[in-house]
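Residues determine shape. Take a concrete instance:
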Amino acid sequence: MFLGSREETGHVGYVPARCPKCAHQGLFSVYDSKRKLTVIALVALPLSQQMVVECPKCNVRMGVPPEQVQQLHSQMITPDKLASMASNGGTQQQIAQPQMPVPRGKTAYQVLQLDPAAEEEVVEAAFKRLALKYHPDTSKSPDASERMREIIEAHSVLTDPTKRARYDQSIGIRRPVKLPPAMRASDV
C-alpha cells in the first residue's frame, strides 16, 4: 500500500554560474535532491535522484542533466572552502566567474509563462491566452509575428508527450516515475 512520498535535499556546495532566468551572476547553491516513496511496510524506497542548482537571487531551481554532474563536481566549491576563501580576502569577482555553459534563450515553459509541472489543459489555456494577445492580426506590437512563432513552437513541443519528455530531459527536468495504482488488501 502506498502511503506517500517526500523529497529530501542535501546541500552539497556552491558553483559559480549565471542564472538563465534573471541573468544574476554569482555563486549558486547545489543540492542533491532525492525523492523517496513510503510503502505499507514503512520502508522508504529511493525513487529518483538528481543534482539541483539554485539561483540565490530569484530562487529558481535548475536540474543538472546526468552527463553534466561530473563537470559540476569538478567546479564545485564546498562550504568550508568558501569560508576559507572569504577569510583569506577572496573577492566576489574571483569566486563568481561563470564556468558552466549558459543556456541561451527562453525555455518553452518561459515562452508560455508556465510552470514545468503544468498539465496539458493548462498548456492549452496558456497558448490560447497568448495567441489572442500576440496574433499578428490583432496585436499592434512590432514583434508580434516573432512572438507568435515562439508561442506556436513552444505549444507544439509541450502538447506532444514524446517531444515534451525529450525536451524536458534536454533542459535537465526529470519527472517522477509514474507508479501503478495501489492494491487493496481485498485485491490480493
User: Anything to note?
Assistant: The CA atoms of residues 113 and 126 lie 7 Å apart. The chain has two domains: 2-95, 108-170. Helices lie at 69-75, 79-87, 92-95, 108-111, 120-134, 144-159, 161-170. The two ends are 11 Å apart (CA to CA).
